[in-house]
């Protein structure tokens, strides 16, 4: 009988960006399921701000806004995406610091930038 062989680095499956994406999406899904009030609150707040911009702009601009309603909707959508991207990354970093898991993300073979980018896209 031969001695048991220990696993080496070459025996382990390599972690690629597909596995990283899968892990980040799974983690975000778990957070969404565990904290649905945060997700619902975010949707309600976004709809509230859209309503304030839409109806407030209509009251102030009147007929001029009716001509560019599509522009208002597209502008709000782009503004929401840009603000959400910056806010998401800063909130994620703060949450990771509180949970004590930021060091794990920095020490991954991928580095922190791809992990933060995928977390921003997943949200």
Walk me through the topology.
Elements: H1 17-34, H2 36-61, H3 63-67, H4 69-99, H5 102-106, H6 112-122
Helix pairs in contact: 1-6, 2-4, 4-6
Description:
With 123 residues, this protein is mainly α. It has a domain at 37-122. 78% of the residues lie in helices and 0% in strands. The protein has 6 helices and no strands. The chain is elongated. The protein starts with 16 loop residues before the first helix and ends with a helix. The mean pLDDT is 79.
Q: What's this, in brief?
A:
By secondary structure, this protein is an all-alpha fold. It has 6 helices and no strands.
Mean model confidence by pLDDT: 79
Strand fraction band?
under 5%
Query: Care to count the β-strands?
Result: 0
Q: Quickly give the structural class.
A: mainly alpha
Q: What's the overall geometry?
A: elongated
Give the % helix.
Answer: over 70%
Largest sheet: none
Q: What is the terminal separation in angstroms?
A: 53 Å
Give the low-confidence spans: none
Number of helical regions: 6
Order of helices and strands, N to C? HHHHHH
Cα-atom Rg, whole angstroms?
A: 22 Å
């Amino acid at each position: 009988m031969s001695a048991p062989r220990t696993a080496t680095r070459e025996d382990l499956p390599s972690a690629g960006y597909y596995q990283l994406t899968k892990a980040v999406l799974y983690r975000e899904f778990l957070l969404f399921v565990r904290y649905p009030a945060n997700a619902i609150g975010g949707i309600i707040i976004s709809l509230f701000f859209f309503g304030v911009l839409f109806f407030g702009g209509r009251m102030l601009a009147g007929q001029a806004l009716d001509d560019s309603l599509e522009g208002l909707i597209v502008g709000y959508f782009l503004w929401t995406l840009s603000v959400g991207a910056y806010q998401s990354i800063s909130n994620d970093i703060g949450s990771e610091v509180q949970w004590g898991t930021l060091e794990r993300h920095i020490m991954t073979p991928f580095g922190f930038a791809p992990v933060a980018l995928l977390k921003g896209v997943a949200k």
